[in-house]
Each structure stands twice: as C-alpha cells, then as structure tokens.
Write a sequence for this structure.
C-alpha cells in the first residue's frame, strides 16, 4: 500500500478494501503481510486494526515489518530482548496486491436483505460510504477491538464537537482496552478547549462509556 493517506480515511477503510478484493475466505489459514509507504506512516493503533481484521478474511495472522514506530511502542512495554523477523528476498507469496491509498474513499460493510435473499452482513459486502446516503441509521456503535481505540474515540469526539448537535439515535461506546477507557476520560481533545472525549460524548447525548470488551462482536449492545 502506497500513496499519501487522505485525512478522512482510517485503517478500517484500508482493510475493508482488501477484504472486498480477496473475500472473507481469501486468506483462509494464511498469513497476510502489509507493507509500503502508507503502512509505514500508520500509527501503532491503526496497524493493529489492519492485523486484527485479517481474521475476517480467514487469515491465521497479520504481519507488518517492524520499524521505528514498532520499537518506540515497545519501549515501555517490555524489557525482554527480542529480535525482529522480516521476509527475506527469497520469500514466496501466494499472491500480491497493490493499492494506491491516495485514490481510496471511505468504505462501509453493508447489511444484507434477508427477506430478499440478498448477501448477509459481511466484511466483504463493501460499498462506498457516499453510496449509502439513503440508509436509515437506527443506532450507532463506536467500539470493539478494531473500532474502539483511543484514536477512534478522538476522531468521533472531533466530529461531535464540530457538529455541535445531539445524537438522534442510541449511540454506544465500548473501548477496546482499559487504557483506552482511561484515555477517553482523561485526554483532552485537540481544539476542544480542554474537554475530554467523555465530556463531549456526554454533551452529545451518547450512552455512558461501557467497560472494555468485544461488545457488539459478542452480540451486545
């Protein structure tokens, strides 16, 4: 993946693009390696989203070559010596895909129409977000392992802050980890005058932040 990543894209858009190309069974029991200038520019949290969602394509694991971002992240995580492992020049891949990220648009995974026997909800049932303007939203969910990172809540808080409007449907918040939970309550949102994500969510009428968990992936809320 190469090209400058537009500010309106997230790693979730990248992985939905990939799964849409290879299908939900396209990497069954295989490893997926992500590389390129775009991947190198991603934060550690966004890299986690890429690798975490490999399972949605049937993958066994997701890999990103270790670099300075990796080493910095590990500085306060472990004191145990480790040796980075990389694909060598003789490495063989079953298939390779190339994407110009600068040309991608925000994506969604659509819900199927069971009454008409159409495709069910699936990560590879993708569509451009702009093609879904007529879709009625009954509830909003911000959370789980690939959408409940600190960066995700910060992005959501900025949108609420910019709109200045109250939510019109139930809006659930489920952080991925205890650290994210603490960040939502403690870190100020840039441009908010010192407000935290939790304060902005409360003002917007969102549900109270839930305990860290997989949330909707387990069938709730």
């Amino acid at each position: 993946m190469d090209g400058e990543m537009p500010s309106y894209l997230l790693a979730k858009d990248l992985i939905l693009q990939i799964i849409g190309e290879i299908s939900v069974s396209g990497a069954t029991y295989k490893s997926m390696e992500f590389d390129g200038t775009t991947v190198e520019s991603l934060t550690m949290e966004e890299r986690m989203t890429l690798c975490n969602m490999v399972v949605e394509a049937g993958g066994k694991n997701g890999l990103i070559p270790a670099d300075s971002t990796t080493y910095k992240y590990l500085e306060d995580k472990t004191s145990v010596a480790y040796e980075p492992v990389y694909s060598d020049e003789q490495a063989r891949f079953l298939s390779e895909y190339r994407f110009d990220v600068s040309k991608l648009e925000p994506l969604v995974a659509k819900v199927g129409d069971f009454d008409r026997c159409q495709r069910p909800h699936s990560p590879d049932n993708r569509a451009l977000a702009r093609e879904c303007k007529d879709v009625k939203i009954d509830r909003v969910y911000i959370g789980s392992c690939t959408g409940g990172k600190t960066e995700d809540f910060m992005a959501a808080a900025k949108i609420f802050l910019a709109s200045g409007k109250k939510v019109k449907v139930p809006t659930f918040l489920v952080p991925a980890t205890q650290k994210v939970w603490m960040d939502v309550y403690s870190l100020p949102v840039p441009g908010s005058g010192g407000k935290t994500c939790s304060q902005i969510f409360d003002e917007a009428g969102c549900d109270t932040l839930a305990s860290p968990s997989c949330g909707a992936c387990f069938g709730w809320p």
About this structure: The mean pLDDT is 94. The two ends are 34 Å apart (CA to CA).
